[in-house]
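sry for the spam today, last one i promise. C-alpha cells for design, 294 residues
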C-alpha cells in the first residue's frame, strides 16, 4: 500500500498542506528521539549558540533550552539518513515528481513550557526558486496536539500573494499583524501522532504559537525541491547548505535546465546578518505572537 493516498495528494495540491499519518515506525522515532535528547544533554555545556545549535533565552546548564539544530543532517548520521528514507521520499516524489533535490534541514525542539513562537511567514520569501515545486516535510518526533505549539497553515494561501516580509526596509522574515489582518485567525493546526509527516508548500503561509504546555513538540524539518527548481536568490542558497546547487539529488536525476514559472516573487534583501529565524523575526515590530521567552 502506498505511504500517501491519492486523496491526500489531491488535498496537498488544493490546500497547500497535508498531514500523512504512520510514515515512520515507532522504533525509528524512538531512535531519533534518543539522539535528540543527547543533543539537549550536550547543550548544557554551551553558553551561547555554537556550531548550528541555537539556544533560547533563559538557557542554563540546569535548565537547557536548545531550541533548534540547524543543518541537522550535518550533525548526526541518523538525521542525515532521513533525507533518503524511502518512505519519506515516496511522499515527496508523489507531490513534486521523481527528480528531487534536498534543500536544507533543521530540527526545532519546542521544549515543554518555553518553546518559542514562529511568526507567520512563507518560505518562498526566504528562498524563491524558478518554480514552486518546493516543499517542507516535518517529521513528528513527539505527538503534536492543539496545545504544544503545533505548526499552523492557512489553507489555499499557496495560490495567493507573496506577503511583504520586510519592515522599515529590513527583511524580517515575518508578516506583520496589520498586514495579516483576519488571516492570523485562519490557521489550521497540523496535528498527528509521532511518526506522522507534515508537508507544506513553499508558498503556504504558516506560523506557530509558543508551547506553553508540559509536553515537548520536537519536529525534524527537511526542505526538498524538484530538481529543475533552481534558486533565484536569498537565504539557504549556499550559506546553509553549500553543496546543494551541485549535488544532493536524493531521488531521480539532476536537471541541467531550470523550469521557469511566472510567479510572484519578493526578494529577501538586504539579507539579514543572522541565520537564526527567531533572531530575524524578532526584529519585526508588529509581531502576532506574544512569547513568554522574549
Ligand atoms: O518549528 C516550527 O513550528 C516552524 C518552523 C518554521 O516554520 C521554519 O523554520 O521555517
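last one done:
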Amino acid at each position: 500500500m502506498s505511504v500517501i493516498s491519492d486523496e491526500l495528494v489531491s488535498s496537498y495540491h488544493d490546500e497547500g498542506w497535508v498531514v500523512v499519518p504512520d510514515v515512520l515506525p515507532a522504533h525509528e522515532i524512538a531512535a531519533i528521539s534518543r539522539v535528540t535528547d543527547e543533543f539537549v544533554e550536550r547543550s548544557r555545556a554551551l553558553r551561547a549558540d555554537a556550531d548550528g545549535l541555537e539556544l533560547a533565552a533563559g538557557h542554563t546548564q540546569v535548565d537547557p533550552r536548545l531550541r533548534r539544530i540547524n543543518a541537522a543532517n550535518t550533525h548526526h548520521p541518523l538525521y542525515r539518513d532521513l533525507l533518503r528514507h524511502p518512505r519519506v521520499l515516496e511522499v515527496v516524489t508523489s507531490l513534486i515528481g521523481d527528480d528531487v533535490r534536498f534543500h536544507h534541514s533543521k530540527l526545532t525542539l519546542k521544549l515543554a513550557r518555553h518553546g518559542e513562537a514562529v511568526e507567520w511567514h512563507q518560505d518562498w520569501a526566504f528562498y524563491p526558486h524558478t518554480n514552486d515545486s518546493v516543499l517542507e516535510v516535518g517529521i513528528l518526533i513527539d505527538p503534536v496536539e492543539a496545545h504544544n505549539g503545533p505548526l499552523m497553515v492557512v489553507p489555499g494561501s499557496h495560490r495567493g500573494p507573496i506577503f511583504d516580509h520586510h519592515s522599515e526596509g529590513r527583511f524580517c522574515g515575518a508578516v506583520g499583524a496589520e498586514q495579516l489582518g483576519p488571516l492570523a485567525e485562519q490557521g489550521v493546526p497540523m496535528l498527528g501522532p509521532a511518526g506522522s509527516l507534515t508537508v507544506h508548500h513553499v508558498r503556504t503561509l504558516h506560523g506557530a504559537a509558543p508551547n506553553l504546555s508540559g509536553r515537548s513538540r520536537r519536529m525534524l524539518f527537511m526542505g526538498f525541491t524538484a530538481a529543475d527548481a533552481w534558486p533565484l536568490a536569498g537565504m539557504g542558497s549556499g550559506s546553509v547548505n553549500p553543496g546543494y546547487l551541485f549535488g544532493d539529488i536524493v531521488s531521480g536525476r539532476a536537471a541541467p535546465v531550470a523550469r521557469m514559472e511566472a510567479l510572484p516573487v519578493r526578494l529577501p534583501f538586504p539579507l539579514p546578518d543572522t541565520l537564526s529565524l527567531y533572531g530575524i523575526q524578532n526584529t519585526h515590530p508588529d509581531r502576532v505572537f506574544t512569547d513568554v521567552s522574549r
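The two ends are 46 Å apart (CA to CA). ok im logging off now
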